[in-house]
Amino acid sequence: MAGISVWQLLIVVLIVVLLFGTKKLRGLGGDLGSAVKGFKNAMSDDEKNAAKDQQDADFEQEALFDKKDQAEPLTPKDHEKTKDNDRV
């Protein structure tokens, strides 16, 4: 009564094989294997993307300030043009 004996396990396997057949069981095993493989690949890709996202977070602030310094200041004529565009 402690558990399933070897004979009981063999009888259950025999009944399952008789019910489903070997082709269906082989296909089921292949589908299950590919699902586990896909899950493992997705988990490893997720870990790689998380590491990549952490690397992307490091940026240089100097690049932002350089672009700001390169911008040309607006002239009074530019201000008038933007006011005219706002009215439309």
From TrEMBL:
Topological type in the membrane: Single-pass membrane protein
GO cellular component, one term: TAT protein transport complex
Single GO BP term: protein transport by the Tat complex
Entries under Gene3D superfamilies matching the protein: 1.20.5.3310
Ranges where the record places region Disordered: 45-88
Sequence intervals crossing the membrane: 6-22
Keywords: Cell membrane, Membrane, Protein transport, Translocation, Transmembrane, Transmembrane helix, Transport
GO molecular function: protein transmembrane transporter activity
Pfam families associated with the record: TatA_B_E (PF02416)
Composition-biased stretches (Basic and acidic residues): 45-55, 64-88
Subcellular location: Cell membrane
Function as written in the Swiss-Prot or TrEMBL entry: Part of the twin-arginine translocation (Tat) system that transports large folded proteins containing a characteristic twin-arginine motif in their signal peptide across membranes. TatA could form the protein-conducting channel of the Tat system.
Family statement: Belongs to the TatA/E family.
Subunit structure: The Tat system comprises two distinct complexes: a TatABC complex, containing multiple copies of TatA, TatB and TatC subunits, and a separate TatA complex, containing only TatA subunits. Substrates initially bind to the TatABC complex, which probably triggers association of the separate TatA complex to form the active translocon.
Protein name: Sec-independent protein translocase protein TatA
